[in-house]
Amino acid sequence: MSLGSKLIIGIAGGTGSGKTTLANELAQEFEEDLTVLSHDDYYCARHELSYGERAALNYDHPGAYETELLVHHLKQLKEGRDICVPVYDFAQYDRTERVRVVHPTSVIVVEGIMIFDDSALRSLLDVKVFVDAPADVRFLRRALRDVEERGRTLKSVATQYLGTVRPMHERFVEPSKRHADVIVSSERSTEVVRDLLACRVREQLRKA
After folding, report:
1. Distances in Å between the alpha carbon of 82 and those of 31, 34, 73, 79, 102?
2. Burial zone of 117 (CB within 10 Å; 0-12 exposed, 13-18 middle, 19+ buried)
3. Residue 205 domain-assigned?
C-alpha cells in the first residue's frame, strides 16, 4: 500500500480542551474505517522508578513521550502494516507490559496535547486541528477525568496542574497553535469542524 493512501488527521489542544471527544466522535461515526491513536499511550516506560518518583515526574513536557515510536508506528500504518500500541496505566504512572494491536485503516486520527510540537510527527499529519478552550474549563474537565477515570485525588490534580500542566501549556502547547490548519473553540464551533472533518474522511474513503 503506498504512503499516500492514508489520510492522517492531527487533533491537538490543551488538556481537557475536548480534542479526545472530537476524535472519538469521528471514530464512532466511521468505525472500522478510522483508527484513533492517542499520544498519551506513548508515555515513556518508567519501570526503574518507584511509584512516588513516577508520580513526581513532569508529564506535560515533550520529553515525557516516546514520540519517535509513535512516528514509527504511523509510518508502519501508512505502509499497510499492523502496529502494537503500548498500554499505559495512568493510576500507576507507568507503561504496562501489554500492547494493543492496531490494524491499518484508510483514515488515522492522532490526538494529544504535544503532537504539533514535534516536527517529525507534524510532518506526517495531513490535516491539523487545534481545539481551544478557556483555562478554567480545561482544568475542570481534567479534574473530573483524573478523579473518575485515573484514580487521582483532587489535591493531586490541583498540585500537578499548578506545578506542571499550566506552565507547560504556556511553554509548549499554546505556541504550537501556529502550526494548525484550523483553530476551533470547543465552546462554539466543534460541530462545524467535526462535520468538515467527516466530509474529508468520506472523500478519502471514496478514493480508497
Report:
1. 17, 14, 9, 9, 6
2. buried
3. no
Q: What gap in Å lies between CA 27 and CA 102, rounded to an integer? A: 14
Q: What is the CATH number of the domain that holds 54?
A: 3.40.50.300
73 within some domain? yes
Q: Give this prediction's pTM.
A: 0.88
Residue at 77 is within a domain: yes
Q: Residue 206 falls within a domain, yes or no?
A: no
pLDDT tens digits, residue range 75-108? 999 999 999 999 999 989 999 999 999 999 999 9
Q: CA separation (Å) from 65 to 71, 118, 120?
A: 11, 11, 14
Range of the domain at 66: 3-200
Q: How far apart are CA 35 and CA 55, in angstroms?
A: 30
Reduced to 3 DSSP states, what percent helix, strand and coil does the chain have, rounded to the nearest 5?
50, 20, 30
With cell 487545534, the residue in question is 130
